Amino acid sequence: MLKPTSVKEALHSEAARDEILVQGWVRTRREAKTFSFIELNDGSCLKNLQVIAPSTLGNYAAVQHLTTGASVSVKGKLVASQGAGQKWEVAAEEVNVIGTADATYPLQKKGHTPEFLREIAHLRPRSNLFGAVFRTRSKLAFAIHRFFQERGFVYVHTPIITGSDCEGAGELFRVTTLDVGNPPKREDGLVDDAKDFFARKTYLTVSGQLEAEAFACALGKVYTFGPTFRAENSNTSRHANEFWMIEPEVAFCDLAGDMDLAEEFVKYLIRDVRTNCAEDLELFSKFVDKELLKRLDFVLERPFQRVSYTEAVELLKKSGKTFEYPVEYGANLQSEHERYLTEEVFKCPTTVFNYPKEIKPFYMRLNDDEKTVTAMDVLVPGIGEIVGGSQREERLDVLEGNMRRHGLKPEDYSWYLDLRRYGTVPHAGFGLGFERMLMFVTGVPNIRDVIPFARTPGNAPPRSGGAV
Ligand code: 4AD
Ligand code: MG
User: Fold this and answer.
1) Residues 272, 278, 282, 288: is their CA dihedral positive or negative?
2) What atom of ligand 1 comes closest to residue 245's alpha carbon?
3) Which one of 255, 265, 285, 309 has the fewest beta carbons within 10 angstroms of its own beta carbon?
4) Residue range 24-51, pLDDT digits in tens
């Protein structure tokens, strides 16, 4: 049995071949006098493979009816192409029509808007742009594992269903098997959560950090890479309700070490995609963002700028620019502020550190000034925050104090406090938003277009076959 060859392998072939089997979807078909040109794409790469189907084929009538979107399996010879633009083509000896597609196939040749393509999320990976996005997504995921594995980090699978709100922002999706219309009630009339599946309130995780800390305090250097969920009603181009996050956590590491790791990591990923996704990046730089390659190379060449939150607020105030949200010490930096810092002030990725304790979660280490915590956010041009992290509070009494200040009961986090009770160590980590990183390396401006089936407010299945 002849094994199928991918279009990518065929196009990179060293020599002609007497026998080849290729399978894929018809992008276009053109008819000449004694044959048809079929442009075949199988998703293995951006480029199509040209197939020459001669009119002498037994089923040539069926070949003549092939339209965009149909699936075929082609046997023949791989021969040097006469035409410009490609080295190899297939001289078909057999063209099997596997599945036809009619004129209602939505991906006809002309360009479509991202909005239209979002409505057909199940078909859009067949377009050039989305094929490229999702191949890059796969390569980027692999590079993430490679980066950490090369450095001796252990991959930890943290739970998806959890009882704690790591970020304390109350943006949790509840997980319950109770009948929401008619839940069991306690004597005082409130819902009896003890009757729920896990005998308590549970949620989809917003972050694997707390569990990753437990593993870092045993295995030294760990990372998680998995889906996280946030019920935030932010209808922006950078927020999704289901997104993937990478969270390294390192024992015996402080804030400076954490910032170094984040910078090394982000640069490694850019370098990797630059090398391993060159063809797809060409497409992005042609059709999505003309400045992309220049920007990525520029980022690789320069150290990230570092600035404290206090200095950042000063710079923003001095800028003379009117922002939609006023700049105040003690307030969260808004996306417009973050972008101004990285795009206008520093013109390169910028790490802001030491934020006021009031605006950051309970687990961050209190600085000696007792006003700020060892938080750090990496901001990049075009997006704003891409990484959020910190050194963790390793002192038991201070951590308990932080919890109370945040309205949390230390008793509810007793396992987490054990990490401070038994052999506590300074440790630090961060979270990189996978989709935001993918937006950065592809130049794709909307997070909905780098997620196979995006989940955003008001949009979940079963619209358009699970789309949007
Ligand atoms: O800054 P965040 O909320 O940090 C944490 O969750 C920490 N527990 C991470 C840690 O220290 N281990 O989120 C981290 C990153 C953000 O910088 C952003 O890139 C991404 O996750 N992110 C989102 N991406 C897409 N959609 C959303 N709604 C996101 N919220 C955060
Ligand atoms: Mg953050």
Assistant:
1) negative
2) 21
3) 285
4) 999 999 999 999 999 999 999 999 999 9
